[in-house]
Amino acid sequence: MRSLLRAALIAATVASVVSSATFATHADAAEAALVNVAANAAPAAAAKPVIVVLGDSLSAEYGLPRDTGWVQLMRQRLSDQRLDYSVANASISGDTTSGGRARLPVLLERLKPSIVIVELGANDALRGVPLSTTADNLRTIIEQAQQAHAKVVLVGMYVPPNYGPDYTQKFHRMYTTLSNELHVPLVPFLLAGIADKPDMFQADQIHPTRQAQPVLLDNVWPALKPLLHTTSTR
């Protein structure tokens, strides 16, 4: 269990070196995300409300065939349920809350999303970023999205037990605190239901497999679905 919880935490970091080498600045990363969004947009996307996923490798299809990650599955579920949204996957492997905070403004300006799903924080813990800094970054991300009239879904994570019970509890509690403080729905743990199942991870025992992606979507969906009924086309 300990090794798998560690795997759950470091899932977002394996490609961080590649990410930092590819993008010289957060602006470059944001621009790359916008290009990705354009490539996946439907022809009539401009007339649809937009859902932006601001995440790390857990949302960026790391190690998966293209268009098989949970974000793509969410796009398909929305279509199947006749919920007319355009989904913009602005996730970058290795991203931190600081990176997400830096590149969010251009995403808000260019895409004008109705909903922002925030899946960040695990890399901060691995890099020893103080919890106060991580919390401040997440708070700013949420508040910026809210100021842009977007609804927010906050996705929580756990850190491994070897970080110590005090830090482990405080890290996870941070997400709950922010959810309550800023009145945003919370996904308690993105990897719930797979963290103790080795066959749900790739060969590195770090990143979830293609078969695990529906579980990730099912973990996010209960927090997201209520917002879909209260969000109008912008």
Automatic annotation (TrEMBL):
<dbReference type="InterPro" id="IPR051532">
    <property type="entry name" value="Ester_Hydrolysis_Enzymes"/>
</dbReference>
<feature type="domain" description="SGNH hydrolase-type esterase">
    <location>
        <begin position="53"/>
        <end position="211"/>
    </location>
</feature>
<protein>
    <submittedName>
        <fullName>(3S)-malyl-CoA thioesterase</fullName>
    </submittedName>
</protein>
<dbReference type="Pfam" id="PF13472">
    <property type="entry name" value="Lipase_GDSL_2"/>
</dbReference>
<dbReference type="InterPro" id="IPR036514">
    <property type="entry name" value="SGNH_hydro_sf"/>
</dbReference>
<dbReference type="InterPro" id="IPR013830">
    <property type="entry name" value="SGNH_hydro"/>
</dbReference>
<feature type="signal peptide">
    <location>
        <begin position="1"/>
        <end position="29"/>
    </location>
</feature>
<dbReference type="GO" id="GO:0004622">
    <property type="term" value="F:phosphatidylcholine lysophospholipase activity"/>
</dbReference>
<keyword id="KW-0732">Signal</keyword>
